[in-house]
Amino acid sequence: MTRDLPALVAHARAVIAAVALGILVPASGLASPLLKPGDPFPAWALRDHTGALVSSQSLAGTTYLLWFYPKARTPGCTTEGRGLRDRFAEFRQRGIEILGVSFDDPAANAAFVEAEGFPFRLLSDTDKTLATRVGAVWVSLQPVPSRISYLVGPDGKVRKAFENVTPATHAADVLSGL
Questions:
Q1: 137-162: pLDDT as tens digits
Q2: Could you report the per-residue pLDDT of 62-82, keeping only the tens digit for each?
Q3: To which CATH superfamily is domain 26-176 assigned?
Q4: Which of 27, 34, 77, 113 is the catalytic position?
Q5: Would you call 164 helix, strand, or coil by DSSP?
Q6: Is 77 a catalytic residue?
Q7: Following DSSP, what letter does each residue of 4-49 receive, concatenated?
Q8: Cα 46 to the chain's mean position, in Å?
């Protein structure tokens, strides 16, 4: 991995420079804007880490947190996922189901669930459709999901949007915002 560090540093510098110059931007021009409380959350259907189909229709009547994360088994995403895992009982007590969403395939998400002991499902938005529709895509040399989350109420409407999430405090931030 250390052999790749110089390449990663060079890539990061290039991305930062491109963002500063306006060459690479968040996908605001490509994706829908961030949803606001009261907005209807769009209908969706995605495969979870076991290959099962999960949809907004199957969650009707349930409050759920859709946690968008860039990449399975990366440091920030692991920190964020562990925080949600460690406070999972508090979410359940409040009747909230947690669902992670990334562009990873189900196998990568399954490995992430197994490695970290996540008690929640991870969904694969491999074609980037849902993330694009809800303003959760960051366009760089390779598009990745933005670190945002949506709390969707049992009526299918956004109760709260969490933008610019900090991985280490995300679970606490969501719980304190309820």
A1: 875 556 677 889 999 999 999 999 99
A2: 999 999 999 999 999 999 999
A3: Glutaredoxin (3.40.30.10)
A4: 77
A5: coil
A6: yes
A7: GHHHHHHHHHHHHHHHHTTSS-BGGGTSPPPP-TTSBPPP-EEEET
A8: 13
